[in-house]
Amino acid sequence: MDINISSSEALSEAVIKKLNQTKTGFFSTFLWYRNFVDTVIKKDSGNYGFLIAESNGKEHVVFPFMLTILKNGCRQLRSLTNYYSPLYQLVYDKSVDFDGVTLSVFFDELKRGTLHWDIMELQPLDQEGASFLSLQLQKAKIFHVSFFCFGNWYLEINNRSFDEYFAGLSSKVRNTVNRKTKQFEKLQGAEVVIVTEKKDLDAAISAYERVYASSWKQDEPYPDFIPGLIKIAEEIGSLRLGIAYLNNVAIAVQLWIVADNTAYIYKLAYDENYKQYGAGTMLTTKLMKHVIDYDKVEVVDYLCGDDPYKKDWMSHRRERWGILAFNTSSLRGVWEMAKEMSKVFLKKVAFFKKISLFFDNIF
Q1: Selected residue with higher pLDDT from 191 and 2
Q2: How many folded domains does the chain comprise?
Q3: Are both 269 and 332 inside the same structural domain?
Q4: Residues 115 and 162 in one domain
Q5: Cα–Cα separations (whole angstroms), residue 231 to 188, 238, 349
Q6: Are residues 232 and 248 in the same domain?
Q7: Reported confidence tier of residue 81, pLDDT bands at 50, 70, 90
Q8: Last residue of a domain, one of 264, 297, 330
Q9: What DSSP line would sit under 216-241, residue for residue?
Q10: 205 and 266 part of one domain
Q11: What is the pLDDT of residues 33-51, one digit of tens each?
């Protein structure tokens, strides 16, 4: 197996096709990574690339990565992700490599590769993917630990219409939605639009940025990322950008992305000066109706976080996890592994001390 490194600009058509295969998912597509690299990584002058494992002229594994030097001098190989990334995966052909042989060989080769990494961090992963990668790392004799990233609330539509879905929500949510919707629709100059096409794009991006700047949220550290994401979503027909206007002033925005038979709720914000109108709740309802009745999605996904309001709208929760691995071919990697093992040991000692104290208090 040969492992090569490529930039996003130099990726072959075969690798781009592999990234764009339907089962890969929106957040692993070439367009996603191109925007991420152009608006985030290059701004930081980051060291990134795509590790490509090949044999017999065929690409078997694609590993989008970053390589950073931590403050303590440790060389960290990590997934090409940050807080903008709700999901990550190594891209490989699961139908061919269903038992993970190719992937475990890839990890074994990676230990002695030219990147000279000490630790490797992959996140955020779905639980099934994390378990599978953990097994392949174990086969490659790479010590690793798993860690929790965040909760993920989502809704399974199960062939329901919006009205059927809405009827199943709690009476508290239904009453709030009906009250806020009527309140907003009575206002003079009230309007809701859902932008999906290029002709409306520049004005929509300006509206999004104006609302976000007037919201409770911190300024975007990479201000070009979201406009770039909006543009690529429109390019592939996935954009659902909801905007609530009052007298031609945008007061609430929600960025949804429809892909993979799923409506991803990616970003939302409202102008705090108009908070009393509850435009965010009303906008969620309008978009939910659009993606269920018009787009016919199978799932609505709130992506990152356990915010209390999410379970009012969603039906299920799952978790995203990460993996921290240690390269024992590197002295620094061995040292980092030893530190991690000592943390695990001390946690166990602390746990047994609590148990002992508990029984001492009983007896």
Answers
A1: 191
A2: 2
A3: no
A4: no
A5: 31, 10, 52
A6: yes
A7: very high
A8: 297
A9: SSPPPSSTTHHHHHHHHHHHTT-EEE
A10: yes
A11: 999 999 999 998 889 999 9
Looking at the domain assignment, is residue 142 inside a domain? yes
Q: Which tokens in the block code for residue 62?
A: 């694609």
**Same domain, yes or no, for 193 and 126?**
no
Residue 312 host element (H or E): helix 310-313
Both tokens of 276, joined, read 């009393």
CA distances from 259 to 126, 152, 265 (A): 17, 17, 11
Answer yes or no: are the C-beta atoms of 242 and 256 closer than 8 Å.
yes
Please give the Cα distance from 284 to 187 (Å, whole number): 18
d(CA 89, CA 161): 32
Distance of CA 255 to the CA centre of its chain: 14
DSSP 160-226: --HHHHHHTS-HHHHHHHHHHHHHHHTSTTEEEEEE-SGGGHHHHHHHHHHHHHTSSSPPPSSTTHH
Domain match, 252 and 323 both: no
Asked whether residue 113 is assigned to any structural domain, the reply reads yes
Q: Which domain holds residue 229?
A: 158-297
Q: What is the average pLDDT across 99-116?
A: 83
Task: Establish if 180 belongs to a structural domain.
Answer: yes
Which residue is associated with the tokens 């770039």? Answer: 228
d(CA 214, CA 234): 25
| pLDDT attached to residue 362 | 55
Contacts 24+ apart (CB under 8 A), 162-168: 162/288, 162/289, 162/292, 162/293, 165/288, 165/292, 166/285
CA 247 to chain centre: 35
Find out whether 243 and 252 touch, Cβ atoms under 8 Å.
Answer: yes
User: Contact at 8 Å (CB) between 29 and 62?
Assistant: no
Residue 352 has pLDDT above 60, yes or no: no
What are 191's two structure tokens?
A: 């309007």
Kindly compute the dihedral angle of the four CA atoms of residues 61, 65, 68, 74, in this order, to the nearest 10 degrees.
-30
Length of the chain: 363
Report d(CA 230, CA 256) in Å as an integer. 9
Say if residue 146 is in the same domain as residue 166: no
User: Tens of pLDDT along 150-205?
Assistant: 999 999 999 999 999 999 999 999 999 999 999 999 999 999 999 999 998 999 99
> The domain that contains 340 carries what CATH number?
3.40.630.30
Residues 80, 206 within the same domain: no
